[in-house]
User: Which sequence fits this backbone?
């Protein structure tokens, strides 16, 4: 039995899911060498797992690289049918995106990772990565969630996703203290290069999450980034909190 009480894990399954996580978190198709570097697996082991996932229809091969297949759209729809979170989040997030004229979304924490519940990405431009990675420490939404959680919930490892990602535990702790003081979090190209985001936590008895706005760093900046958008987010957070309670 594991410490979390969920029973023993199967290493092969865990490794396959680690490969999938890399593919899902990377905006572009990714090769075996890069997957191996992010998972601490050998290239031959990664190749076996990614080939198996491709044969099962969960991964698509693009040249010599790989990306998640459209089968995950079906998975998402089936999960969506069983939860009212999406329906609850849709209207306030859509309104937030329209007012900000940027990508907006709602994320919840589950077992130490960030889970995208709903994203209004109609204002995304080009290949803008309109989603959050699973890591909590590198996005505005994730940091807003961490600031709302007890300090012992901090991740032990803080991988660098960009040169701006906070990877030092003490520095992250100081950042969380600032978030608690001002009521919102800022991500200055910490999750994706050339992308800034702002977020405010959403807390109920049953969940801890965050509502966020993301935009291109050269456009979402200055007073709009540090004052105007946070004001919109504080209102959206209150609406979501009331709707979820």
Assistant:
């Amino acid at each position: 039995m594991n410490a979390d009480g969920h029973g023993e894990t199967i290493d092969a399954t865990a490794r396959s899911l680690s490969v999938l996580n890399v593919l899902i978190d990377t905006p572009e198709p990714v090769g075996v060498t890069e997957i191996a570097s992010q998972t601490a697996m050998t290239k031959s082991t990664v190749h076996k797992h990614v080939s198996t996932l491709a044969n099962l229809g969960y991964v698509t091969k693009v040249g010599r690289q790989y990306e998640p297949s459209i089968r995950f759209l079906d998975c998402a729809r089936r999960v969506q049918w069983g939860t009212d979170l999406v329906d609850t989040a849709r209207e306030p997030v859509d309104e937030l995106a329209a007012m900000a004229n940027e990508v907006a979304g709602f994320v919840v924490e589950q077992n130490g990772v960030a889970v995208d519940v709903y994203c209004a990405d109609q204002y995304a431009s080009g290949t803008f990565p309109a989603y959050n990675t699973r890591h909590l420490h590198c996005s505005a939404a994730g940091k807003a969630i961490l600031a709302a959680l007890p300090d012992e919930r901090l991740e032990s490892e803080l991988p660098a996703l960009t040169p701006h990602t906070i990877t030092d535990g003490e520095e992250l702790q100081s950042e969380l203290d600032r978030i608690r003081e001002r009521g919102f979090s800022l991500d200055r190209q910490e999750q994706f290069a050339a992308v800034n985001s702002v977020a405010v936590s959403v807390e109920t008895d049953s969940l801890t999450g965050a509502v966020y706005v993301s935009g291109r760093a050269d456009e979402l900046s200055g007073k709009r980034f540090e004052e105007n958008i946070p004001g919109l987010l504080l209102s959206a957070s209150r609406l979501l909190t009331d709707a979820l309670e």
Observations:
- The longest helix spans residues 222-244.
- Residues 76 and 82 are 10 Å apart (CA to CA).
- The chain is about 45% helix and 20% strand.
- The helical segments are 11-25, 32-39, 43-55, 71-81, 85-100, 140-148, 169-182, 222-244.
